[in-house]
Specification:
Layout lengths: L7 H15 L9 E4 L4 H12 L4 E7 L6 H14 L4 E5 L2 H4 L6 H19 L4 E3 L4 H14 L3 H4 L5 E2 L10 E2 L7 H11 L15 H14 L5 H30 E4 L3 E4 L1 H5 L3 H16 L8 H10 L8 E2 L4 E6 L2 E6 L17 E3 L3 E4 L5 E4 L3 E2 H9 L6 E5 L7 E5 L5 E2 L8 E2 H7 L4 H6 L1 E4 L5 E4 L3 E2 L11 E8 L9
Parallel strand pairs: 1-2, 1-4, 2-3, 4-6
Antiparallel strand pairs: 5-6, 7-8, 8-11, 9-10, 10-11, 12-17, 13-14, 14-23, 15-23, 16-23, 17-20, 18-19, 20-21, 21-22
Length: about 500
């Protein structure tokens, strides 16, 4: 229960304690952009940050939703200048900018934070500060509960949030998050601040206002300290969520084989060993890795559909949500941004455009693979090397039997290749299928053809029979595919 009297000095001490505890890295000599609407909360926020010695830039966005909004913007600017603070004011037509299906409230929030972070970048500020209070935290918890949010929603807002939906590295700071709204009203009155009330704050068509004016007063009949209780619950859940985040990061490192900008690949055996809640958590993490923090997390239903879809093999990528796709095959469980099939260290692939080559050459291939074609050497050297065996991605070619230039391209339907010691040419698709190469990889498989259009090398099966190095060969060249280094890129 809050018993301290809401004086300016008491509020200053509480905010100072909050920032020292949660945001000790904030500096007083680097500007903070403070979002000021003109209400008591934001005016008090600017006042207390100034009292604590921070350098301020006041930012006000006129949403253009009320006839008197221009007068309010002007009043904020005049007050800020009177305090000696730089001020940035901008007007936007939020109603015109609203996208299909987006609420006016969401459109206004998006415009406001985009503006605040733009100001912060332009003025090389260290963070954006906004005036959310303990009451706002309680309202947020209830709103998220009504939406059916999980732990991510019920932990509410953080005093320091980075990254955010609006910026990857500039923090969003809420210094008043432990301060009741009644305190900011009392302090604003005590200081004589020019508070401007926004009549839309009482419009019950907005869900937050309905929570504020209808639901919370009703809950307060059972618990007079309901706002403080909900805020305290959010802090407790945030602490639990932080521990869970650490556990998810550890499980991510154990389960993810590769995490590229456009896809995440889970080890299939490790994925199958996970319980459904862990699979759901890692799918959320993959979503964030691929889409960034600017996109809201997937819903419970979206996660469950994805989890079930990935428990069985897929012929081609299946659409999930927000431009993401799902794929399961022998070499991994994938979440993809876009429908392009990933290339991993298990199977090589060629670029879609054929490439003309003459030895020596070095070519970068998709997925981190590299093709190296050596310089011509006497065939006796090749015969010596062949006596010790070759790896699956190596081959020696008889240079005289392989007219140049050569072309590196993807395998095409109907391509035929003559494996060493086979009775004759066979379809490349059949050779790869017999080697248990999945269909998507077969369509990307690299092949090398000579100037006559004959396939002279099929990676994984070596040189073609007529182009192999024999006793009569004079010159030879070594072909080698280097797989990518196996690594895990954590998000």
């Amino acid at each position: 229960m809050t018993t301290t009297r809401p004086t300016p000095q008491a509020l200053k001490a509480r905010v100072q304690h909050t920032l020292a505890d949660v945001a000790p890295a904030l500096r007083t000599d680097v500007p903070l952009v403070v979002g000021v609407s003109g209400g008591a909360d934001s005016l008090v926020l600017a006042w207390v940050l100034d009292q604590l010695g921070y350098s301020l830039i006041i930012a006000h966005l006129d949403h253009g939703l009320r006839p008197e909004s221009a007068d309010q913007a002007r009043a904020v600017a005049e007050w800020a200048r009177a305090q000696g603070w730089p001020v940035v004011v901008q007007r936007v037509d939020v109603a015109a900018q609203r996208r299909g299906g987006q609420s006016l409230e969401d459109a206004a929030r998006q415009a406001r934070y985009t503006f605040l972070f733009h100001v912060a970048e332009a003025h090389q500020a260290q963070a954006v500060a906004v005036a959310h209070t303990q009451d706002d935290q309680a309202e947020t918890v209830l709103l998220n509960l009504l939406r059916g949010a999980g732990l991510e929603g019920l932990r509410g807002m953080a005093v320091v949030q980075v990254p955010t939906r609006w910026h990857s590295h500039l923090p969003l700071v809420r210094p008043l998050l432990d301060v009741p709204r009644g305190w900011t009203r009392a302090v604003a009155d005590a200081l004589g601040l020019p508070v401007q009330e926004d009549p839309s704050n009482r419009d019950l068509r907005y869900r937050r206002n309905w929570i504020r004016h209808r639901v919370l007063p009703l809950l307060a009949e059972a618990n007079p300290n309901i706002r403080e209780t909900l805020a305290r619950t959010a802090r407790a859940l945030a602490a639990d969520a932080a521990l869970l985040d650490e556990a998810v990061a550890a499980r991510w490192a154990e389960t993810v084989r590769l995490a590229r900008p456009n896809w995440v690949r889970f080890d299939p055996d490790a994925w199958d060993a996970l319980s459904p809640p862990w699979q759901a958590r890692l799918l959320r993490r993959a979503w964030q890795h691929l889409l960034g923090s600017a996109v809201l997390p997937p819903s419970w239903d979206q996660v469950q559909r994805a989890r079930l879809a990935l428990n069985q093999p897929t012929v081609r990528p299946r659409p999930w949500a927000r431009g993401l796709y799902l794929l399961r095959r022998e070499d991994g469980v994938f979440v993809l941004r876009g429908r392009e099939v990933p290339v991993t260290e298990q199977w090589p692939a060629a670029e879609p455009v054929p490439k003309t080559l003459t030895p020596p050459a070095r070519v970068a291939l998709p997925g981190g693979w590299t093709l190296v074609i050596g310089s011509p050497v006497p065939a006796a050297r090749a015969r010596q090397a062949l006596a010790h065996g070759l790896g699956p991605w190596e081959a020696w070619l008889d240079l005289d039997a392989s007219p140049r230039p050569w072309t590196l391209r993807r395998a095409q339907p109907g391509d035929r290749f003559w494996p060493v010691d086979a009775a004759g040419p066979r379809l490349v698709a059949d050779i790869l299928a017999a080697a248990r190469v999945h269909a998507t990889a077969r369509r990307l498989w690299p092949v090398l053809e000579d100037a006559t259009g004959t396939l002279i090398w099929l990676p994984g099966r070596g040189a073609a029979h007529p182009q192999r190095v024999r006793d009569a060969s004079r010159w030879a060249v070594l072909l080698r595919l280097h797989p990518p280094q196996l690594e895990t890129t954590r998000s």
